[in-house]
Design brief:
- Helix content is about 35%, strand content about 25%.
- By secondary structure, the protein is an alpha/beta fold.
- The chain has three domains: about 100 residues, Rossmann fold; about 70 residues, Dna Ligase, domain 1 (2-Layer Sandwich), CATH 3.30.1490; about 120 residues, ATP-grasp fold, B domain (D-amino Acid Aminotransferase, Chain A, domain 1, 2-Layer Sandwich), CATH 3.30.470.20.
- The strands form four sheets. Strands 16-15-12-13-14-17-18 form a seven-stranded mixed β-sheet, with helices on both faces.
- α6 packs across α7.
- The N and C termini lie far apart (about 60 Å).
């Protein structure tokens, strides 16, 4: 039996991989705390506690090597940017292990938002107007040129500091005036960022598996609700048809850099034009939706990376209109609306929150984490959610 190691057991995508592969492979899970979502799944053989990849990158890599050697791991699925930044540079130190990811050079090219825009423009993929800036004065100048509101983005999700190792970048910020920009700039603490025009519309993702220069699987979804409500992680999403024009341009981009692995291109669209927002060179948070709709990316990736020949036929057929709901994420979305946050359609307030909580989410909508056949991950998530809520709550006098 193939032995698989899934990193970042606390991530929902890691749980999706564990559930996908657990029935026919031996799945080991790595996590930096006991009782991770994937680690408590019925499909995980063992959970291995390791140091946090950002707090102790050397310790993380050493622990990973020990797990690989002791349990004769055949395949590693690196699930987050923090893990990729640590693991991919030492790929040559694990010569007998298949790592389901591109090489570090390609990963770095596509993870850098400024480099990505340059490559994308050569293939007719548009991005919101903007510029790379290194000072507040430059950021203010560019913001006035492209008009408010603007989006402040770190160049990468995880940066590499020569002295301290990998560092988590601050979140993307939407700002509407010079005062808000100055405050966001002070909190960002990055030497360079990307300033872009805020684009109206909704989010859509195009997902691909590429091996040996061929596209082995494709999928697409539309974001219906997000956390935070104005734009962020999807909490309710629906499978949609892949736009052939977007896919062909995306494939040309991936051909240029000789990409192999799984990736998600995130777009903003108004129904006619598409603007590239970012590129995730790894598995994505809503992976379970693709599996539920009929494209089992983890299994296809394992087969393609382990086989001497690529998957013969492109896995392009999937069910349209399938919905997936991250229940606790959607609850956070509703609470934010009740507190006055505005969603992408301008809705806010208690009535909007109640509509989220009590109106049907559509026929056949499946809950992402909560599964009757594998209940423990949901219970683990609830305990973490409650603990986080208690930390956020104001202390009593």
């Amino acid at each position: 039996m193939i032995r698989v190691l899934v990193t970042d057991g606390q991530e929902r995508a890691s749980l999706a991989v564990t559930r996908s592969l657990g029935a026919w492979t031996e799945v080991h899970v790595m996590a930096d705390r006991k009782g991770s979502l994937s680690g408590v799944s019925r499909w995980a053989v063992r959970e291995h506690l390791v140091p946090d990849a950002l707090a102790d990158s050397d310790g993380f890599n050493e622990s990973l090597k020990n797990v690989v050697q002791e349990y004769a791991i055949d395949v590693i699925f690196p699930m987050t940017d923090r893990t990729c930044v640590c693991l991919l540079p030492i790929r040559d130190e694990l010569p007998d292990v298949t790592i389901v990811a591109p090489d570090f050079k390609v990963y770095s090219q596509l993870s850098d938002k400024a480099q990505l825009i340059d490559i994308a423009s050569r293939h007719g993929i548009a991005a919101p107007a903007g510029a790379r800036v290194s000072s507040l004065s430059e950021a203010l100048h560019q913001s006035e040129k492209i008009c408010w509101p603007v989006v402040l983005k770190p160049l990468t999700s995880v940066s590499t500091d020569l002295n301290s190792g990998p560092v988590q970048s601050p979140a993307v910020r939407i700002v509407s005036d010079p005062e808000a920009l100055a405050k966001a700039w002070a909190e960002t603490k990055c030497s360079e960022v990307l300033i872009q025009r805020y684009v109206e519309g909704w989010g859509e993702g195009v997902f691909v598996l590429r091996v040996q220069g061929r596209t082995c699987a494709i999928f697409a979804h539309r974001r219906l609700r997000e956390k935070p409500p104005g734009g962020g992680v999807s909490v309710l999403r629906e499978s949609v048809a892949v736009d052939g024009r977007v896919l062909s341009r995306l494939e040309a981009l991936l051909d240029e850099v000789d990409f192999e692995g799984v990736a998600m291109a995130e777009f903003r669209t108004d129904g006619s034009e598409y603007w590239l927002m970012e590129f995730n060179v790894r598995f994505w948070g809503s992976l379970q939706l693709a599996i539920d709709a009929g494209v089992d990316f983890p299994r296809l990736a394992l087969e393609a990376f382990r086989s001497s020949s690529v998957v013969g036929e492109k896995a392009s057929g999937f069910r349209l209109g399938v919905r997936s709901r991250w229940l606790l994420g959607d609850l956070d979305h509703a609470l934010a609306l009740a507190r006055g946050r505005v969603d992408t359609k301008g809705r806010r307030g208690l009535v909007a929150a109640l509509r989220v909580l009590f109106l049907p989410t559509g026929p056949g909508c499946r809950w992402e984490v909560l599964r009757v056949s594998d209940f423990r991950p949901f219970w683990a998530e609830v305990k973490l959610w409650l603990a986080a809520a208690l930390r956020r709550a104001p202390s009593a006098d």
